């Protein structure tokens, strides 16, 4: 049972189109989240079974911080529905309505959007 902050983190990744390239946006960017939030051992990290979350380096970082790893069942997108819904809201309300010239502009505008919601 989750009773407070930093007990359960969800993760997902999506792409953002810039004028001349694509970049990726990760929910709960791991190193930034550890540095800013400093969770206690036992935090649950939930994601889909994407290669980025199952990679040796990523799993090792989670284990270093004594994080419990949780992954969606294979072929079951509903297990991470909260995170998927967040990404859809972000894209529909900000990303699809914008044309970002470069990474700095995308970071600034998406950051503003996240601060407002």
Describe the structure in your own words:
With 117 residues, the protein is α/β, with parallel strands linked by helices. Helix content is 41%, strand content 20%. The chain contains five helices and five strands; from the N terminus they run βββαβααβαα. A three-stranded parallel beta sheet has the order 1-4-5, covered by helices on one side. Strand 2 and strand 3 form a beta hairpin. The longest helix has 14 residues. The protein is globular. 10% of the residues are buried. The mean pLDDT is 92.
Write the layout of secondary structure elements.
Elements: E1 8-10, E2 12-17, E3 22-27, H1 30-37, E4 44-47, H2 51-54, H3 56-64, E5 68-71, H4 81-93, H5 103-116
Parallel strand pairs: 1-4, 4-5
Antiparallel strand pairs: 2-3
